[in-house]
Amino acid sequence: AQLVESGGGLVQPGGSLRLSCAASGFTFSRSAMNWARQAPGKGLEWVSGIYSDGRTLSADAIKGRFTISRDNAKNTVYLEMKSLKSEDTAVYYCTTGSMRGQGTQVTVFS
Q1: Which end of the chain is less enclosed by CB atoms within 10 A, N or C?
Q2: pLDDT higher than threshold 90 for residue 110
Q3: Residues in contact with 60: Cβ distance below 8 Å, sequence separation at least 6, in sequence order
């Protein structure tokens, strides 16, 4: 089983990015998926989650700015990020259960 994140990069405050996480080796359509992030010098922070039925949950820090979605046909979960702030700078991870990908770096700088 594997999770592979992509889509991170450098962006100015107010900018947007879309992260993708490609899943393989397990029944993706039946799995709840999450995004979490780790800022420099801080612990892992849950960001958003999506159930197999499409229901979503999000942390207060990103509500109204980030949107999680999934495409079961592509075994992929996305995180659309808008109005990015410097405090969103972190390594973003895709997770399900105890599994976590290698992460993708998002850096917001002015």
Answers
A1: C
A2: no
A3: none
